[in-house]
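Sat 14:20. Reprocessing the chain from the morning session after the first attempt stalled halfway. Input below, unchanged.
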Amino acid sequence: MGDLAQNNDGALDWGSTIVKDDEYTILPEGTYNFTVESIERGRFEGSDKLSACPQANLTLRVTNPIDGTEGKVFESLKLHAKMEWKLSQFFTSIGQKKKGEPLVMNWNTVPGSTGTLELEINHYTKNDGSKGENNRVKKFLPKEQKSFVPGKF
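Finished this time. Tokens:
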């Protein structure tokens, strides 16, 4: 019946053939290069600590520099004054922001951007009471600024 390749938006129909298994890989804690695979605009509905606000849901592809293995990390950036430090950290990491300088966030240029991050393993309890773990961004690291040295390439 249906074929995934025929559905440009990724929607499956009831007779589609499926192949992919769970592809989620837990990477060891450490420093990784990342590429922003996608961004979705969402909404954070608020909590005791933070009022409702827009939220950027990022899918990051991280690459282990030692063996080349890749994994995906999902990160949500809340557009709230209390989280401005993390937004600055992210935009500095992808090279859009310079430390100490103001920046109008340009979300249209975020997909495909690259940077470096520190990854940690998050241990949590699932709704059914079982234990789970996933990768979480501990912090985004500043993009290295290339310095110009005359005569060197």
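Residues 1-7 have pLDDT under 50 and may be disordered.
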